[in-house]
């Protein structure tokens, strides 16, 4: 019942319930109190305007209009409620009929309802008004019958939702009769939405009924409702407009009372759609992070296609998914970025491409692309449109479904290269051929839904090749593709990089993908680079415990097929609550007090290998890579962590003993979901900002991603 | 998918325009036409049965209690009410195919003549109102969506939401009465009633269009907002297209799919809405006719007008479905 009280806590709810209470009160009391006044004939004041005696004037018999409008409340509301009752009852019967009467009859009922709802309500009302006869009784029946199909459709929808549920199926298998299933199992579960909709329906019925009476087909004299009063008022509108307007206003207010109440109940019962209020952004000046100061201060390498210093992305509420990232990419270089989801890697890519939208905010001390300062408030569209190619994760959703592939490619040429429509399209076809799409002429004329996932990703790369890209940002380009297509797309990216001498920024949660393609890899954790190392060194010389854990979690040919997958204990950091000190400390087997209080600086060892860890290489070396054991980690959440790639559903239920795979072998067929994972992702604050990109990074139930091709084998 | 076609495969025929595979498209048209025909049959049957569902003798009711019995009997015979029901039905349907809707009991005129004389007034009103509603709603919805995206300009958003809810929930005939009272009676800017010249259209069109425009604008806004957050709009932004092109060429067609579905329903309900609005403005269209003939129990006329309204609605619904399939090749053509 708490939800009912919630109705009264919203302004809409208060307004609706108050108005509805007043309307109902008037319906009961007005005829008792003012009934005589409303019928009193005042021959001295026929069709009079507003006066002290008659506040809104009189009708053609000199009867006071205010009293008549008030008294008419009872008939108007009562008839509306009666018609609603008839209509909803009929609708309910029609709605559950498919469930009660079995398949064949049910389909017929559904078909009839479908035909009837195609007609506007007013047409049905008029039809039934003829059948049931002109007058109050006929009008009530007509309106009632006319709203039944719409309500029946609603009931059918709700019933269909509930009939699929397990408990209904169970009841059916148990041999419970259809009637009993409907009464005991289905109706109680759909009662709430039905009541809400009936309330809103009543508001509509009130208006329809007024319309019918207004047409002279409803309430007949000497009775009167609001519609009737309006009709009488309209004939005298030249002399006395208020006579027609006043009952109209009454109708609107009463209708609104029902509608608002219904909406408020619906709102209180449904999911709240109110978004959080915007908090002022905590602005962290660039350069104040340890990483920024440690980065090669001042040295500007002119061979860099992209130079990023102290990049930070923040969202309202103090959420900073990217907290000071510095790196550069040279022409022709392939740089990988790995990390769990929520580590800020995708957001880093988006902010480089200048695609982070409000309320997200990007700050950096330096952000240059091809020598151009992207932080300057200038129009970089042509540069970014032709020299930066972005390949997104999901090729299925990244093309506009209602535009031809060729047109989508050609746009770049049209807008940034000044090509004519024809030559832009010709180039698009040429580019499709360049990414080895067969029969490019025909393909260019097709819509995205006619392309397979791998083909779309090729086309997406081809789109990037419309210009002459200096940098290709590929954000999980193969995650949504199956394994065989993955390697083709990666090869294509490699080929393009070599041919164009373009730089490649490859973002992946898959260490092995990055290791295959890139020469250097950035390891990100909690919005920060924790290690920057050559991919050759990943297996031999990784100096951050997190990098080691990531690498260890990748099964290789030597991994026993029956061994459960290795995992990283604990869970990723919630970007809304980044702990003090090293963000990885809580999951790190060798963390000490300093790690938990003081944030390590990303330091260059002189060879370009950067690590942010307080421990010496020798200390980390004790964590032997790729072998089990040795890491007795106190996992903050106990057991139940899991490693999965998106959607594959793998997980290992361990016992909190570290990276080692001490599960019982059966562990990874069942997910350890009650482990408290779900408590992290949401509530982070910035998933409510409505920012699609942020939402994706911080997707609910933040999982540790250490996906590798070997998993296919493991299955 | 066809991407795995080996290179040696025979060259496929040139793709059809619109890129819709012929088989599915044909099946869709057939299915949709079938539904239209079934609905039309239901409509015709309902309109036929109406006169038989009326309590008592419809002719006696139409001519009044004082009419001489022989006149009533003659009229009943003329209407064919003495024949077996099936004969009457076949007769009715047969005449329909020849465009014969019978004869008015009251005026003795052919129902089809009265309808063809009055239909233009109603159709022009409904179409004009629909055009106005769409022309106002789509730019407004798009503009508000773009302006209030991501929690910007909260006040604009609230004003828009409030106003559109209120305007959308006021029935058209009440708007009509208010417009007449203020703009015609008080200010005298427009004619109070009747159909004479362009100015006489202004108030009825506004009365009909304002509610649907408000509802439609809300839908457009919501659809636009969800489309603007999609991956493919991000792709378009990554291409650095001008924002006008992103909003209008990339986002709008995707937002308009749902809008059009609702717009079609609105057009259908607008056709019905003319009944009330015509009575407010004494508009010489079908709406006035239907109410008048219900009141005077002129059943052949009621049958005819209900039939015409129904057919218009069904045809509009079908056209909307077809238009939807053309705009968005994915939608509706799927098997359902």
Automatic annotation (TrEMBL), chain A:
Keyword Repeat among record annotations: no
Membrane topology recorded in Swiss-Prot or TrEMBL: Multi-pass membrane protein; Peripheral membrane protein
Membrane-spanning residues: 12-34, 75-101, 108-132, 138-155, 194-217, 237-258
Alphabetized InterPro entries for the sequence: AAA+_ATPase (IPR003593), ABC_Ni/Peptide_Import (IPR050388), ABC_transporter-like_ATP-bd (IPR003439), ABC_transporter-like_CS (IPR017871), MetI-like (IPR000515), MetI-like_sf (IPR035906), Oligopep_ABC_C (IPR013563), P-loop_NTPase (IPR027417)
PROSITE patterns noted in UniProt: ABC_TM1 (PS50928), ABC_TRANSPORTER_1 (PS00211), ABC_TRANSPORTER_2 (PS50893)
Residues of the ABC transmembrane type-1 domain: 73-262
Bias kind Basic and acidic residues: ranges: 702-715
Compositional bias (Low complexity): 638-691
Occurrences of domain ABC transporter (ranges): 306-551
Any Gene Ontology biological process: transmembrane transport
One GO cellular component term noted in the UniProt record for this chain: plasma membrane
Superkingdom: Bacteria
Chain positions covered by the region annotation Disordered: 626-715
Methyltransferase recorded as keyword: no
Family named by the database record: Belongs to the binding-protein-dependent transport system permease family. Belongs to the ABC transporter superfamily.
PANTHER family per the UniProt record, alphabetical: DIPEPTIDE TRANSPORT ATP-BINDING PROTEIN DPPD (PTHR43297:SF2), OLIGOPEPTIDE TRANSPORT ATP-BINDING PROTEIN APPD (PTHR43297)
Protein name as annotated: Oligopeptide/dipeptide ABC transporter, ATP-binding protein, C-terminal domain-containing protein
Taxonomic source organism: Nocardioides terrae
TrEMBL record, chain B:
Alphabetical list of SUPFAM superfamilies matching this protein: MetI-like
Membrane-spanning intervals of the chain: 36-54, 125-146, 158-189, 201-220, 255-277, 306-327
Domain ABC transmembrane type-1: 119-320
Any Pfam family: BPD_transp_1
Keywords from the named record: Cell membrane, Membrane, Transmembrane, Transmembrane helix, Transport
GO cellular component: plasma membrane
Single annotated GO MF: dipeptide transmembrane transporter activity
Recorded topology in the membrane: Multi-pass membrane protein
Localization in the cell: Cell membrane
Gene3D superfamilies from the UniProt entry: MetI-like
Family: Belongs to the binding-protein-dependent transport system permease family.
PANTHER family listed in its UniProt record: DIPEPTIDE TRANSPORT SYSTEM PERMEASE PROTEIN DPPB-RELATED
Protein's UniProt name: Peptide/nickel transport system permease protein
Native source organism of the sequence: Nocardioides terrae
